[in-house]
Amino acid sequence: MGIKLRAVLAAFGMAAAVTAMSVQAQTKPTIKLIYTDPLSGPFAQVGDANLKQWQYVISYINATGGALGRKFELIPFDSKTQPAEALLALKAATDQNAPFLVHCSGSNIAAALIEAVDKHNARNPENRILYINCGAVATELTNEKCSFWHFRFDINVAQKVEVMVRALPKDIKKVYLLNQDYLFGQSVQRDAKIFLQKLRPDIQIVGDELIPLGKVKDFSPYVTKIKAAGAQALISGNWGPDINLLVKAGIESGSDLRYYTMYTHLAGGPTAMGPAADGKVLSVMPFTENLAPQLKNETAERFTKTFRDANKFEFTSATFRTILEYLQAAITKANSVDPVKIAYALEGLSQKDFLGYDTVMRKDDHQFISEYIVGNFAKGVKYDAEGTGLGWRPDTVILAKDLMQPTTCKMKRPAK
Amino acid sequence: MNITQERRWYWMVALAIAIALPWCFYNFAAGKQSGFSVTLLSEIGLLIIFALSFNMQFGQAGLLSFGHAILFGLGGYCTAHALNAVKAADLWFPIELIPLAGGLGGLGFGLIFGYLSTKQRATAFAMITMGLGELVTAAALMFIGFFGGEGGVSTDRVIGSSLIGMDYASPIQVYYLIVAWGFICIYLMRLQTQTPLGRMANAQRDNFERTQFVGYDPKLIRFYQFVLSGFFAGIAGGLFVMLHEIVTFDAVAAQKSASALLASYIGGVGGFFGPIVGAIVVVLMQSGVSLLSSAWLLYLGTLFVMMVMFAPGGITGLLTMHKPIARIGRLGDLVVPYLRILVPAAVSLAGFVLLVELASFTTIGASQGKEFKVIGFALDAGSPVPWICGAAILIIGGFWLKRASRGFASTWNALMEQAKREGGVR
Amino acid sequence: MEVFFVSLLNGLVYGMLLFMLASGLTLIFSMMGVLNFAHASAYMLGAYFAYTLSLYVGFWWALLFAPVLCGLFGAGIEMYGLRRVHKNGHVAELLFTFGLALIIEKCVQMTWGLLPVPYRIPPTLDFALFDIYGTQFHAYRVFMLVISAAMFAAIWLALTRTRVGLIIQASLTHPEMVRSLGHDVPKVFTLVFASGTALAGLAGVIGGNYHTTDPAMAFTMGPIVFVVVVFGGLGSLLGCFIASLLMGLLQTFAVVLDYSTADLLKQFGMVVSSTHPMAELLNVPIPRIGALLPYILLVLILFFRPRGLMGTRDT
C-alpha cells in the first residue's frame, strides 16, 4: 500500500527542511559569498553554468591566498527565478553575517535585491551586506535606482548597445531592431536608436519590433518582414530561445543578414545556431577563450584552458576572476571584512584584469567598466564552442575608456 | 455559528503555536532572530491564506482555476501603489489596514475575471483561467505604467503610521502582522463556508442540476464565490507586498497559481483546513528541501503523483480516515502495524533518494564542485557500486513494504469493521 | 503580395506542426476527458529519443522508433497510472498528468543535462528547396508538411476505415454507450492514449531539430497546444485541424500587420493623445501581441461557445 509512502515522503520533506533551517551559523572563518541564481526549473542552465565558473574561479583565488589570510567560500542558493526566493537568500546571508550577496541574472530580481539590501542596511547598521551584481544589466540600476551598497560588475544595457553600434562595419546602411517586449528589451530598443543617431547617423533604421517574451516559436514571418524591409543587419538584445530560434530561422531562409546580438554566446546558443551560422553572427561579450591566444598571453590561456577541459561550454564568465581580484584588493586595502570599509575601498578602485586591460570600478555609480569584445561566430578559431567546430573570434575590442557613459546616479553614502 | 467550545480551544492552541514558533529558531548566542526562519514562516502564512482562498473555488465550489495568482498578484500591485500613494501624499493611514487595498483590488479584478470565467464550469472554466493567467502575465511585462516592467513596483513599509505604534522595520513584526491577518482571514473564510452561499457552492459542486432545481442560479453562485475568493487572495497579495516590499510579474505567473493548487491538493481539498497543512509542506519543500537538493521539483512531483494515485483526500484526508477508529479508542492498536510499514517505507525512500541524487549529481552536480556525501561518507558517483546499492535498497524496500502492507491492511480492515459495529461510521 | 504568399506558407507549416502535437491531445481529451499535461512532455521525449537514436542508427530509423518508444511509454502511464486514478475523477487525472510533467522534466534534465542538445536536421534534407520571391523555402519545412499531411491522412483512414477506428469514433462521442455494448473500453483507452502520445513523440522528432531541443521545450509548447485543442472542440478531429491552421496562420499574419487599436480609432476621427491613461494599451500594435492572440481567442470562444469550434460534446 503506497498510502504510507506519501506520509513518509511528507515527513521526510518536513524533517529535511527543519534540519536545513537549523543549518545556519557556521563558525569557519571564511569570507562568505552567498550566490543566488536559478538552479532549478526552466532557467536552471543559467545558474548552473555560472555556478561552475564561480567554483573554478574561487578555488583559483583561494590558491593565491584569498584575502587577509582567509579563504573565500561560495554558498549557492536557488532563486528559482523568483524575487521572493532571492530575498530569502538575502535573509540567509544576513543571518550568517556574510559580507557579500552575489547575483548574476534577471533585472527584476536585481531591482528587488537592491531595494531590500538598502532597507536592510538602513535598519540593521550592525549587520550590513554588499550586493555584488554580476549580470543584471538594466541601465537604471546604476542610474535612477543606484545604491551605495550595490556594485555592478558587468557593463549595462546602454554600454552594451554602444559596443554593438561601434562594431557595425561601414558598409552597413540599413538595420532592423527586434527586441523582447519588456523593460530590458525596450531599453535596448531605445538605446539603440540613441546611439545609432549619435555614432552612425548614416544608418537608416528600416524597422523596429517588439515580441512577447519567450512566446514566439516560429520566427519565419519575422524573417520575411525583415527581408522585405531591406535590412542588412539585425540588432537584437534577445536572449534564450528568442534569439536562438530567430537566428536559426534567418539562416535557413538563406538571407545574408548579419546578426548583432548580446546573448548568442550563452550556453545553448552555439548549439542551436550550428555550423551554418559561420561569419554571420556577432555577439558582445566580456570575454572569449580565443582572446588570450590572439594576445599571445599564455598564462591567461592556461587559466581558461583548465576550465574548458573539465566543462563542455565556453568560459564566458572568466571575468568572475576579475570580480574576485577586485574584492581581494578592496579587502586588503580596507584591512577588514566590514562591508562599509570594503565598499569605500572598492569604489574608485582601478586595476588591470588578467588579460592586461585597464578596468575601473567607478565611484559615482558603482558601475564597473572594462574592455568589451565583439566576437564573431566563425570557423578557424583555436577554441570552438560546444563542439560545433565554430568559435567566437574576437574581431573588435572596445576599450574601457571609450565606454565611460555619464550617469544620473546620486547615491547616499553612509558614515565611514 | 457552529463553532463549539471544544473547537475554539483548537484555534487558541494554533494561535499560541503561531506566536511562539519564531522563538524556536531564535539564535540565543547572537541574541537575534533568524531572519531566514522568520521569512520562511511568513511565506508559509502567506501561502496558507492564498491556498485557502484557492480552495474556496476548488474545494468548495469545484472550480479548478489555473490562474488564481492573477488575483493575488493584482492585489499585490494595488497594495504597492496604495502604499506609495499614502507615502507620497503624507496621509496618516494605519499601515495595518494596507492589505485591505489588496483585498479590494482582488475583489475588483475578481469581478471582471469572474464575469468572464464563471459562466462556465469544470474544464471550460479551467481553460479560461489558464488563458487569462497567460494574458495577465504577458501584460505585466508589457505595460510599464501599472506594472512597473520587470523591475516591478517597489515600496517601503516603514511609513510610521501604525495603529499600535510598531514601525514594521524588523521581519518579526511583519510576521506577527501576517499571523493576525491570517487568523482573521481563516476565521472569515471558515464562517463563509457556513453561510448559505458557502453551502450552495458545495451543492453546485456536487450536483449542479439539482441546485438549479432548488432555485439558485449556479452561475451566480460561482460568480460570488469567485469574487470573494479574489478578495482573500488580494489580501494575501497585499501581505506579500508588506513582507517583500516589492511585487514583480512572477506574482501573477503560472508558477504561483500552481503552488496554490499543489498546496491545496497535498493538504486535502475536501475539508476546510487541508490547504493549511499543504501550504506548510509546499513551502518547506520549495525553500527547505531545495537547500539540500536541486532535485526538489522531482520530489515534489513524485509526492504529488503519489498523493493523486493513492491518497486523493490529501494529508487531512489520510488523517480523517482514522476518525472511526479513534472514536472507538483503538488507535493504539495501529502503532505497531504503522511501525511495521514505516520502516520498509523509509528504506525504499532512502533507496529512491539515493538513486535520484546520484543521477542528479552525475549530470548536474559533479562539476558544481560538490562532493557526494551520505551521512558524512563520500561516495564516488562514477563507480557502479552506489548505483547498485541504491537500486537494491529500493527494490528490497519495495518488496518488504508490499508484504508488510498486507499485514497492515488486514489489521486496518479488522479495526474498521469493529468501528462500524460499535461506533457507527458516518 | 509576396509577403502574403510567404506568410501563408509559413503559417501553414507552423499550423501543421501544431496539429501534429494537438491531434493526439484531442483524441485523448475527447475520449477520456483527461486534459493531459504530460502531452507536451511526450513531445519533448520524442525529440530527445530521436536525438539519442539518431546518434546510433541515423535520423530515418529514429523517425520510426522514437514515436514507438513514446507510445510504449504512454501505454505504461495509462495502464499503471491513469487507470488507477480514473475513479477519482477528471480533476485527479489532470493533476496526475501535471505531477508527471514535473517528474519528466526533471528526469530529462538528469539524463541529458541542462543544456540544449545538438539535435540537427539530417544532411539529406538540409538544403533550400525552392525560392519564393527571393526567400528560400527550406526542404525540411516541406518535409514537415508532408509528414503532417500523411499523418492526418493516416489518422483519418484509421478512424473511418478500421473496426477499431469506428469504435474509437463512437467512444469519442458516446463512451458510456460503447461500454454498454460490450467493447473492451479500457483496452481502447490504452490504445488511444498510447497513440496520442506516439503522435506527440512524432511531432517532437520533427519539431525538435527545427526548433531547439532542451528541457524547457515542454514548458514553452504546452499552453498553446491546450488552446488549440479546446478551441477546436471536444470530439472533433477536424475542429482540431482547423483550429491548428487558424492559430498558425493568425500568429504568422499578425506579425505582418502593423496596426494598433489607436490606428483604428484614428479612422473614426478619434485621436489618442499620449497622456491618455489607456494610451499605452491602445497604442499596442498587433505584431506585439501576435503570440497572445490564441489566448484571447480561447477566452472569447469559451465565453460564447464552450463547445469550441466544432465540438460535439460539452467540455
**Tally of domains of chain B:** 2
H-E string of chain A:
HEHEHEHEEHEHEHEHEHEHHHHEEEEE
Order of helices and strands of chain B: HHHHHHEHHHHEHHHHHHEEH
Overall helicity of chain A: 25-40%
Radius of gyration of chain A: 22 Å
Low-confidence sequence ranges of chain A: 10-28
Task: Please work out how many helical segments of chain A DSSP would assign.
Answer: 13
Give the number of helices of chain B: 17
Strand content of chain B: under 5%
**CATH homologous superfamily of the largest domain in chain A, by name?**
Response regulator
Write the layout of secondary structure elements.
The complex is a heterotrimer of chains A (416), B (426) and C (315).
Chain A: H1 3-22, E1 31-37, H2 44-63, E2 72-78, H3 83-95, E3 100-103, H4 107-123, E4 130-133, E5 150-152, H5 157-167, E6 174-180, H6 183-199, E7 204-211, H7 220-228, E8 233-236, H8 241-252, E9 258-261, H9 269-273, E10 281-285, H10 291-295, H11 298-310, H12 320-334, H13 339-346, E11 350-352, E12 358-361, E13 368-369, E14 372-378, E15 391-398
Parallel strand pairs in A: 1-2, 1-3, 3-4, 4-5, 6-7, 6-8, 8-9, 9-10
Antiparallel strand pairs in A: 10-14, 11-12, 12-13, 14-15
Chain B: H1 5-24, H2 35-60, H3 69-89, H4 99-117, H5 122-142, H6 144-147, E1 153-154, H7 171-193, H8 196-206, H9 208-214, H10 218-244, E2 246-247, H11 254-267, H12 274-292, H13 296-310, H14 314-320, H15 323-327, H16 335-365, E3 372-374, E4 377-379, H17 384-422
Antiparallel strand pairs in B: 1-2, 3-4
Helix pairs in contact in B: 1-7, 2-7, 2-10, 2-11, 2-12, 3-4, 3-10, 4-10, 7-10, 8-9, 8-10, 11-12, 11-14, 12-13, 16-17
Chain C: H1 2-32, H2 39-86, H3 90-112, E1 128-132, E2 135-138, H4 139-161, H5 163-173, H6 175-180, H7 185-208, H8 217-232, H9 237-256, H10 261-267, H11 279-282, H12 286-289, H13 293-304
Antiparallel strand pairs in C: 1-2
Helix pairs in contact in C: 1-4, 1-5, 1-7, 1-8, 1-9, 2-3, 2-7, 2-8, 4-5, 8-9, 8-13
Short description:
The complex is a heterotrimer of chains A (about 425), B (about 425) and C (about 325). Chain A is about 40% helix and about 20% strand. Chain A is an alpha/beta fold.
What does the model show?
- The complex is a heterotrimer of chains A (416), B (426) and C (315).
- With 416 residues, chain A is of the alpha/beta class.
- Chain A has two domains: 28-154 and 319-370, Response regulator (Rossmann fold, 3-Layer(aba) Sandwich); 158-291 and 372-402, 3-Layer(aba) Sandwich (Rossmann fold), CATH 3.40.50.2300.
- Chain A is 40% helix and 19% strand.
- Chain A is built from 13 helices and 15 strands.
- Chain A has helices spanning 3-22, 44-63, 83-95, 107-123, 157-167, 183-199, 220-228, 241-252, 269-273, 291-295, 298-310, 320-334, 339-346; strands at 31-37, 72-78, 100-103, 130-133, 150-152, 174-180, 204-211, 233-236, 258-261, 281-285, 350-352, 358-361, 368-369, 372-378, 391-398.
- In chain A, the strands form three sheets. Chain A has a seven-stranded mixed beta sheet, with helices on both faces. A five-stranded parallel beta sheet of chain A has the order 2-1-3-4-5, sandwiched between helices.
- In chain A, helix 12 (320-334) packs across helix 13.
- The longest helix of chain A is centred in the N-terminal third of the chain and has 20 residues, at 3-22.
- Chain A is globular and about 60 Å long.
- Mean pLDDT of chain A is 85; it is low at 10-28.
- Chain B is mainly α.
- Chain B has two domains: 5-316, ABC transporter involved in vitamin B12 uptake, BtuC; 323-422, no CATH class.
- Helix content of chain B is 73%, strand content 2%.
- Chain B has 17 helices and four strands.
- Chain B has helices at 5-24, 35-60, 69-89, 99-117, 122-142, 144-147, 171-193, 196-206, 208-214, 218-244, 254-267, 274-292, 296-310, 314-320, 323-327, 335-365, 384-422, and strands at residues 153-154, 246-247, 372-374, 377-379.
- In chain B, strand 3 and strand 4 form a beta hairpin.
- The mean pLDDT of chain B is 85.
- Chain C has helices at 2-32, 39-86, 90-112, 139-161, 163-173, 175-180, 185-208, 217-232, 237-256, 261-267, 279-282, 286-289, 293-304; strands at 128-132, 135-138.
- In chain C, a hairpin with a 2-residue loop joins strand 1 (128-132) and strand 2.
- In chain C, helix 1 runs parallel beside helix 4, helix 1 (2-32) crosses helix 5 and helix 4 packs across helix 5.
- The longest helix of chain C is centred in the N-terminal third of the chain and has 48 residues, at 39-86.
- Chains in contact: A-B, A-C, B-C.
- At the A-B interface, helix 1, helix 2, strand 2, helix 3 and helix 4 of A face helix 2, helix 5, helix 12, helix 13 and helix 16 of B.
